[in-house]
Write a structure and sequence with these properties.
Helix content: 55-70%
Distance between the termini: 62 Å
Structural class: alpha/beta
Radius of gyration: 19 Å
Largest sheet: 5 strands, mixed
């Protein structure tokens, strides 16, 4: 029994060892994954197969581990300085894939910021939805100022209002048919990143196209390098 456990532990350690992907991205384990059933190499390979290679050039390292920012901001991943920081505490493969894809979206905002946001189409669509969200919440008794909803940048007070006062479960129901999920209203950047994640997680874009046509059009432009070159 002891020998079996030692072999199992060795296998897990080998599975969660630093490696380089086929595209040269360094995957580094600051901490071991809590869920031993997750095969990180297979997951990163899945991500690289889903997303066009020209959208995978803005980061060089994926770090798996625990960071204080996760608790401070109630998140499980963030992008900073060419590095994807991904929590080592994951429920399953799908959660990890979504975290990685979501942060890849944020890595594109600096190099392709003008192409994404320059024409204001996504921002206009986002703020129209925010106004509808404000009116729905107001009717339900959540009487927050309209100014919060008309600010497209991240605002901690507004985020706390959605997460703690309204609550994610109720917000999820209110956002159905308006936003792709309950995190999308957080800010314009999260509206883009959640749409990007949905676009590459699910091959059928009909729902995203229906509720966020301007965002979907922008994502299709980003996907095709010829359209992206023409836009630039």
């Amino acid at each position: 029994m002891l020998q079996h456990l030692q072999q199992k532990q060795k296998q897990l350690q080998e599975m969660n060892s630093d490696f380089y992907t086929s595209l040269g991205t360094h995957v580094y384990f600051k901490d071991q994954l809590d869920n031993s059933n997750i095969d990180i190499e297979d997951i990163i390979a899945q991500v690289e197969s889903k997303i066009p290679s020209h959208l995978l050039n803005e980061f060089e390292v994926i770090v798996i581990g625990h960071f204080d920012e996760f608790e401070e901001r109630d998140i499980t991943a963030f992008y900073k300085d060419g590095i994807l920081h991904i929590s080592n505490s994951q429920e399953d493969d799908a959660d990890l894939v979504q975290d990685v894809v979501h942060e890849i979206a944020h890595s594109l905002e600096s190099p392709y910021g003008y192409e994404i946001y320059g024409d204001q189409n996504i921002k206009d669509e986002f703020l129209r939805k925010r106004k509808i969200l404000h009116d729905k919440l107001w009717a339900l008794g959540y009487k927050a100022p309209l100014e919060w909803f008309m600010n497209s940048e991240y605002d901690e007070e507004f985020d706390n209002h959605l997460r703690e006062t309204v609550g994610r479960d109720k917000l999820r129901m209110i956002c159905t048919g308006l936003f792709i999920n309950a995190y999308a209203p957080t800010s314009l950047r999260e509206y883009f990143a959640t749409g990007f994640t949905d676009f590459y997680m699910y091959p059928n874009h009909n729902f995203l196209q229906k509720i966020s046509p301007a965002l979907t059009k922008k994502l299709m432009m980003l996907q095709d390098i010829k359209d992206l070159d023409n836009a630039g």
